[in-house]
Write a structure and sequence with these properties.
This protein is globular. With 268 residues, it is an alpha/beta fold. Helices cover 38% and strands 18% of the residues. Helix 3 packs across helix 4. The relative contact order is 0.13. The chain has one domain: Alpha/Beta hydrolase fold, catalytic domain (Rossmann fold), CATH 3.40.50. It contains nine helices and ten strands. Strand 2 and strand 3 form a beta hairpin.
Length: 268
Amino acid sequence: MLLGLFVVLGAIVYVGIQAIEPALIYRPDRVRTQPQEVGLEGVQEVEIDTPDANAVLAWWSRAAAGRPTVLYFHGNGGSLANRADRIARFQRAGIGVFMMTYRGYGGSMGKPNERDNVRDGRRAFDYLIAAGLKPDDIVVFGESLGTGVAVQVVKARQPRGLILDSPYTSMLDLARLHYPYLPADWLLNDRYDTMAYIGDVHVPLLIVHGGDDRVVPVEMGRAVLAAAGGPREMLEVPGAPHVNHEDFGTLDAIFAWIARLYGVPPGA
């Protein structure tokens, strides 16, 4: 009798902490916004079909002739609309951007989780191929949470290069760092274990990381760099915070890296 009560109580506690996980990892803005509403011209909203009928949205700004397209996986907060300024910078550089949002974000259907985010990321890559791009035309870009998606997509596909903005070693490592009082091993189903995949990534890699990042310590970026399986370099930005470091000239450095990758002049 008492044992049965403990089992029931344990199950309740387990279900409760499992319910916490989405709130810890995913912080979506669910409002569907059109690119023109945030001042973007020449950007098309597209829907990526999925087998479970949960359509996933993306914004697509096509590349100038002879320029690559960045397949972009954003961070855990906000939506596509929050990245409008970044999309505009890529546009001015002539670089295409295909920015996918996750399930439950900004008009995409369903609920976000690692398995579906990665599968949808592969579908986004395949969407570009079906639209006429070649793998060599694509550079995959991961921002914060999106770095864990990007690494797994690149392992499964072979783009020209990979850019990781503020990568973590794993979501479990981050949870242990920021929530040491929580049973992270029980709590997290979505591990985004970058270190388990990065050694199988052999395309050229650029890591950009703020030296004053209080969310994902720069030491994690260094660990990812050391474990990468192909040509790699890292831009550490002294004094820069997590992700929001355009004022430190990081986008110009990213454009220059892409230019070297393709042997073309860097954009604006």
